[in-house]
C-alpha cells in the first residue's frame, strides 16, 4: 500500500478557517447579543451620569469612570468563556496539527471586530442621548476619533484579559467565578474614582480602567473645568445662624447678585487640578501605549498556556 503523508495547513490558513467559524457562531449561536447589551449599558450610564460629564470636574471623574467600566464590562463578557467552553475540542485539534498561535490570532481578529462594533454603538448612544463628549482633539484631527480609540483600547485590553482567563480556566464555571474578582480589581484600583493607599498605587498600572480614565480626563480637558462640590456643600449651610444672623446666606446673595459664582467655581477648579489629567497629547499616547502593552502581554501568556494544553490533566 502507498504511504500517505498528511500536510497540515499553515498558520495563516488556519487563522481564517477559525475566523470563519467564529463569525458563524456570531450569527447562529446568538453571540450577537453582546451588541444590544452594549447599547443598553451605554444608555443606562448616559442617563445616570451623563449630565455633568466633561462639564464639571466631579461629573467628569464620575462619567469617565463609568465609561471605562462600560468598556471593561463589554470586554470581559465578550471572551470570558470562548476558550474554556471548547477546551476538549481544542485539545483534540491541537494534537491533530492546530497551531495555537493561529487559534489565538483568529480570536484576536474576531474580538477586535466585536469590540469595534461595541464602541461604535456606545458612542452612538452617547451622541443620541446628548451626553457631552470632548470637543477638542489631541492626537487625531477629530475629537470623536480620539475618544473612540481610547474606548476601543480599554475594551480590547479587557477582552484579551478575559481571553487569558478563559485559556487558563478548565470550565466556564471557573471562568465566570474569576470574572467578578477581576471586575472588582478593575473598579477599585482605577486610581481616579476611589482613593487608593500610596503603597498600593502601583497596582493601578495593571488595570485598563486607570489608563482609560486618565486618557478620557485628559481628552476632556479636566483641568479647565469648574469644581462645584465646595460650592454645593457650602450652599447647604446657607441657613446657618450665628448670633441671630445668617452670614453665609448674605454672602451667597452678594455673590449671585454680582455674578461671581462662575468665577468662584473656576477658581475652585484651578486649586484642584491634577497634573496627570493635563490636556496633553503625550498623556493620551502614554495611556494608549500602556493599554497596547497589556494587550500584547495577555495574548502572549494565552498562547504560552495553550501550547501546553496537551499536558493538562485537570
Task: Name the features.
single chain; about 325 residues; mainly alpha; 2 domains; about 65% helix; about 0% strand
State mean pLDDT (0 to 100 scale): 86
Shape: elongated
Note the gap between the termini: 40 Å
Provide the gyration radius in Å.
Answer: 24 Å
In percent, how helical is the residue content?
55-70%
State the total count of DSSP E strands. 0
String of helices and strands: HHHHHHHHHHHH
Count of DSSP-assigned helices: 12
**Any idea how many domains?**
2
**Largest sheet, described in full?**
none
Give the low-confidence spans. none
Bin the strand percentage: under 5%
**Which structural class fits the helix and strand makeup?**
mainly alpha
Topology:
Elements: H1 11-28, H2 34-49, H3 57-79, H4 87-95, H5 100-128, H6 143-168, H7 172-188, H8 208-219, H9 229-235, H10 247-257, H11 261-270, H12 281-307
Helix pairs in contact: 1-5, 2-3, 2-5, 3-5, 3-6, 3-7, 3-8, 5-6, 5-12, 6-7, 6-8, 6-12, 8-12
Amino acid at each position: 500500500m502507498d504511504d500517505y503523508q498528511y500536510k497540515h495547513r499553515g498558520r495563516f490558513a488556519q487563522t481564517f478557517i477559525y475566523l470563519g467559524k467564529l463569525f458563524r457562531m456570531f450569527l447562529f449561536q446568538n453571540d450577537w447579543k453582546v451588541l444590544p447589551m452594549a447599547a443598553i449599558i451605554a444608555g443606562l450610564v448616559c442617563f445616570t451620569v451623563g449630565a455633568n460629564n466633561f462639564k464639571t470636574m466631579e461629573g467628569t471623574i464620575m462619567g469617565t469612570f463609568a465609561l471605562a467600566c462600560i468598556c471593561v464590562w463589554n470586554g470581559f463578557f465578550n471572551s470570558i468563556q470562548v476558550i474554556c467552553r471548547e477546551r476538549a475540542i481544542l485539545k483534540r485539534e491541537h494534537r491533530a496539527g492546530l497551531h495555537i498561535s493561529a487559534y489565538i490570532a483568529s480570536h484576536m481578529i474576531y474580538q477586535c471586530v466585536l469590540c469595534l462594533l461595541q464602541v461604535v454603538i456606545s458612542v452612538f448612544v452617547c451622541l443620541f442621548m446628548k451626553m457631552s463628549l470632548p470637543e477638542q482633539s489631541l492626537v487625531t484631527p477629530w475629537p470623536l476619533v480620539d475618544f473612540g480609540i481610547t474606548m476601543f483600547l480599554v475594551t480590547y485590553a479587557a477582552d484579551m484579559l478575559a481571553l487569558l482567563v478563559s485559556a487558563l480556566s478548565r470550565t466556564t464555571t471557573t471562568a465566570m467565578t474569576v470574572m467578578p474578582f477581576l471586575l472588582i480589581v478593575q473598579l477599585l484600583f482605577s486610581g481616579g474614582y476611589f482613593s487608593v493607599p500610596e503603597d498600593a498605587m502601583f497596582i493601578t498600572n495593571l488595570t485598563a480602567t486607570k489608563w482609560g480614565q486618565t486618557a478620557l480626563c485628559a481628552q476632556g480637558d479636566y483641568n479647565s473645568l469648574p469644581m462645584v462640590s465646595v460650592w454645593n456643600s457650602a450652599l447647604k449651610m446657607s441657613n446657618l445662624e450665628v448670633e441671630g444672623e445668617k452670614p453665609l446666606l448674605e454672602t451667597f446673595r452678594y455673590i449671585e447678585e454680582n455674578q461671581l459664582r462662575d468665577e468662584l467655581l473656576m477658581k475652585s477648579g484651578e486649586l484642584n487640578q491634577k497634573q496627570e489629567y493635563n490636556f496633553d497629547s503625550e498623556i493620551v499616547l502614554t495611556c494608549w501605549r500602556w493599554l497596547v502593552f497589556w494587550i500584547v502581554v495577555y495574548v502572549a501568556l494565552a498562547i504560552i498556556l495553550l501550547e501546553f494544553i496537551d499536558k493538562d490533566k485537570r
